[in-house]
Amino acid sequence: MKRSIVLLTAVLLGVWGLVAPAQGAKPHDPLEMYTARVDAAKAGELVRDGLDVVGVRTSGENVELDVVLTGAERDRLAARGVSVAPKRNRDGKTQRQLAAEQAAGGYTVWRSWDEAGGIRDELRQVAQANPQLVKLEVLGRTYGGRELIALKVTQGARGTRDASRPVVLYSSLQHAREWISVEVNRRLLHWYIDHWRANDKEIRDLLKRTELWFVLVANPDGYQYTFDTERLWRKNLRDNDGNGQITNADGVDPNRNFNEHFKYDQEGSSPVFATDTYRGPSPASEPETRAMQGLLDRIKPKFQSNFHSFGQWILYPQGWQIGTPDADNPIYTALAGTDAHPAIPGFDPGISSDELYVTNGETTDYADSRDGTVAFTPELGEGTPGSGFVFPDDEALIQAEFEKTLAFDLALARSATHPADPVSPVGITTKPFYLDQVELDPENRPLAMFDFTFSVSY
After folding, report:
1. CA 247 distance to own-chain centroid
2. Which pLDDT tens digit goes with each residue over 47-94?
């Protein structure tokens, strides 16, 4: 719901004091994940204040919020009577401690964008090694001058017009700290290429009639920053206050900057620089957003899988207000599954605003409403309980996370030529017309808004 001008002005003028760093403030105030236990009214207030809420659970009559905070934000909460405790894993370690351990030991799996042999170099190597199947395209450049790279994967990729075949887009790492999303998407890219090279008949046929696009790192500035400076950083590296350095007052959330219900309210995104859901000064103000919007508008995918973490959800539009199922809800349900039978084992599928929280200026809402794309946000897991965004640097756990999602992601490609009749990974079929959807998705009946049944006909 929309907030009053008075409340908004109070926030902007310094309830949080976050618009710019104070004189003499440290260039970077380290981030940590905390848990706050509050009543429902206070929980709503904290969400609307733009705090980086990453998890919500009921605890009796109260609500437990997992939030990523700077030390200054933690202290301001304490001054308001909200106590927080560091979030710890089963070994008693915090997110910062887990991140420090990984970095100190040297990474086994994780690779940055810039390093020799890193993700940027791998994308170029994949395109060079597979000229008959892969085309590399630079969509734009970031504030830091880094390339925003997409790969097109289809039979004769370089000789066919873009979007001449039905398209599926697999994208990841809009939020800088969500490293597992890169690895799952990277392995999916290689899975298709490896099976094509091994003469897998199904994949060969699929790549003759379908066009797959991959954006492995949608926020390369932020991704590199998580290796170099702050592991829990979320946003891009826009210098909001123009002081020539990146501090907690900087960055825009790339997943709140799209030109779809942008700035609709102060709950689904924030107007305050230093909040992690800061939406930016205007729709598509950010180079990362312009690159992704431009790609979506040009290739108009039938399906999109926009990987994030951490949670274990399969989220889909509409996200800008609660109780707003999409017109394509039967297709979303057929592909994502239901609570009883989710398309990704252990995940909770549903409308993003009702499953998690309200968002506006969001990617999948844009793809859905502007380009007719059936667009999902799989929120990947944390690997081990309490790891949060610091997914273990463990090959077996990372591979298991990829394998868990494969059937769902493959279903999108298998369905691209006939999206109204998708190949459901859980065996749900669609019908041409629905009087109501309780038969299709009984768990979401209160939200369905598709009840056209009547008891008497005249």
Report:
1. 23
2. 777 788 888 888 788 888 899 999 888 998 888 888 899 999 999 999
Query: Is residue 384 within 8 Å of 366, Cβ to Cβ?
Result: no
Other Cβ atoms less than 10 A from the Cβ of 252: the count is 26
Q: Model pTM? A: 0.90
**Cβ–Cβ < 8 Å for 234, 276:** yes
Omega of the bond leading into 391 within 30 degrees of 0 (cis): no
CA distance 284 to 217: 18
6, burial (CB in 10 Å: exposed 0-12, middle 13-18, buried 19+): exposed
Who's near 220: CB < 8 A, 6+ residues apart?
Answer: 113, 120, 142, 144, 146, 147, 148
The strands making up 303-309's β-sheet, listed across from edge to edge, are 134-141, 147-153, 211-215, 167-172, 303-309, 374-380, 313-316, 348-351
| Dihedral sign computed on CA atoms, order 400, 401, 407, 411 | negative
